Amino acid sequence: MFIVGGNLKKINKDDLDIKGYKPSSNIWQYPIKTIESTKYELDSAKIKVFNNFIIDCLKSKINLYIVCSPVYFLSESTEYSIKRGEEIAQAYNIKFFDYSRDTFFLNKRSLFADIAHLNIDGSTIFLDNLACRINREYKN
Hints:
With about 140 residues, the protein is an alpha/beta fold. It has 6 helices and 6 strands; from the N terminus they run H-H-E-H-E-E-H-E-H-E-E-H. It is globular and about 45 Å long.
């Protein structure tokens, strides 16, 4: 919302200063829930943009890593759009890091602002972990 709002000039100036990132110190107060994972139609235009983005990065010799952030809910299987994103990444031989079912985060409600967003503490831990992982991958 804040990235879109910033581009449309629909949010206040203080929010624009953070360039699309609005850190939250909120702590999610509710227990983890299981959400049913279902197969659904994906937007073909978004898939095309995703593919074109990957192709542009490859052409520009950019080391691309695709990452799914942690979430605070359980599902019986990997969410359909994540599976599809991973398949696309594999087709281009791009590293795909899925943290959506990472037990470190799933066991720490205090790291989430809501079920879909890490709070500032969770973001810091996640980004430190991700940076170390990418650094290891890059060296190999």
